[in-house]
Amino acid sequence: MYKAFIRPILFSFDPEKVHHFTTSMLKFSLKTPLLSWGIRRHYGLEDKALAREVFGLKFKNPIGLAAGFDKDAKYFDEMSQIGFGFVEIGTLTPKPQLGNPKKRLFRLKEDKAIINRMGFNNGGVAAAVERLKGRNPSILLGGNIGKNKVTPNEAAVEDYKICFEALYPYVDYFVVNVSSPNTPNLRALQEKEPLTNLLQTLQILNAEKPKKKPILLKIAPDLTNEQLLDIIEIVQTTQIAGVIATNTTIGRDNLVAENKKETGGLSGKPLAKRSTEVIKFLTEQSGNAFPVIGVGGIHSAADALEKLAAGASLVQLYTGFIYEGPGLIKQIKKALLAK
């Protein structure tokens, strides 16, 4: 129904406007008893066999919503209700920022992909915290944190510290985002020295808390094998909990859509092979020393199983969720239960 009827209508409108429209409609629907019952009945599927325990947290199922969809912590409850086992909010920055000028989100329909150059548009971490107060504790939440565009890299650590301190009481794990291609010079923070310093600083703050919370690093798919070996060393040196592989790519290989040259990060089907390669490389070269969350190009149950077979402990959806609809979550669950 989604792909046959709903998606063609939605895809005829501006993607950023459609995102706000569909999330608002979902929020409304889940507050309407009859509609809520229908949605839960159609998309719901939970089983104890789907549960996972990773970096000390218990996930009701291994399928999460990747960061970028719920930037401002407005829809995590609804996303949980349609079947996600965990939701990652953000990327959040200390100060509100508008992000890059519109138009900044593009569908590449022929490639089953999206290019975005959003630029960490969000209302700031303080506003998100207000929405997180009193949240349902059964929803497992990650907090994806970044730096403001106006903050120079030399001062970036302070931005991450502000976000960490603000979100600590309200999220279950953290993700350090230094891999978005849409904030100028951000990816320079993936270099060995600044990244080690950033993660060690956050781990010091973490150790001062009543309970340490898992800190993960989200990396770009465009890193070389030598850089990935550095990532493994950094994870082991700083003792962070794991890695999310991968963020969007700046590559444009083998695309056919007319708008393929738009500036920004590419996500979706074209990223599937590379993100799986990165997962496999990290797990094999590290000897499964830390968990990896696999994200990038999951458009089917088979894609999710491929990520898990490559070594991922959990998976996340974003672009595949937009193209395939919420039924994809249930399809993956059925495939996992059938194994």
From TrEMBL:
Cofactor note: Binds 1 FMN per subunit.
Database matches in InterPro entries: Aldolase_TIM, DHO_dehydrogenase, Dihydroorotate_DH_1_2, Dihydroorotate_DH_2, Dihydroorotate_DH_cat, Dihydroorotate_DH_CS
Active site: S180 (nucleophile)
EC number: 1.3.5.2
Annotated residues for binding of FMN: A67, G68, F69, D70, K71, T91, N144, N177, K218, T246, G268, G297, Y318, T319
Molecular function terms from GO: dihydroorotate dehydrogenase (quinone) activity
Pathway linked to the protein: Pyrimidine metabolism; UMP biosynthesis via de novo pathway; orotate from (S)-dihydroorotate (quinone route): step 1/1
Dihydroorotate dehydrogenase catalytic domain mapped to chain residues: 50-337
GO annotations of cellular component type: cytoplasm; plasma membrane
Names of required cofactors: FMN
Annotated binding of substrate, by residue: K71, N116, R117, M118, G119, F120, N177, N182, N247, T248
UniProtKB keywords: Cell membrane, Flavoprotein, FMN, Membrane, Oxidoreductase, Pyrimidine biosynthesis
Pfam families: DHO_dh
Superkingdom field: Bacteria
GO biological process, one term: 'de novo' pyrimidine nucleobase biosynthetic process
Keyword hit for Membrane: yes
Catalytic activity: (S)-dihydroorotate + a quinone = orotate + a quinol
Function: Catalyzes the conversion of dihydroorotate to orotate with quinone as electron acceptor.
NCBIfam families: PRK05286.1-2, PRK05286.2-5, pyrD_sub2
Protein name in UniProt: Dihydroorotate dehydrogenase (quinone)
